[in-house]
Prior knowledge:
Layout: H1 2-11, H2 36-61, H3 66-82, H4 88-113
Amino acid sequence: FIAWLIVLLSESNRTPCDYSESESELVSGISVEYSSVLFLVIFACEYLIMFIFSWVSFIVFWSINEILIVINLMLFVVMRGSFSRLRFDIFVSVVWNYCVVVILVYLICLFSLL
C-alpha cells in the first residue's frame, strides 16, 4: 500500500513530485493565462484526479467505505502539505532502489504461494 501511495503522489503531479512544471511555473505558472472558468476547470480536474485515485485505492485494497475515502483524501492533503519538493535524481534513485525492489519481492512471494 505504501508503494501505491508513492505512485499516486507522483501521478497526481502535486507538491512532492511536481516535475511536470518547470521552476518558473511552480506558482501555478502553467495556468496563469487562464481566468475564471478555465482556471476553475484546471484545478477542479487536478483535485478530481486525487479523489478518483483515493476512490480506486480503497476499492482495490479494502472494501468501499465512505469514511476510508475521506481519510485517504486527508492523507493526500497531509502528505502534500508536510513534504518538501523532492529533487528529481533523489526521487528516481529511491524509486528504482527501494520501491521497485519491494514490489518485485512482493510479487515473487505472492506468485510463489500460488
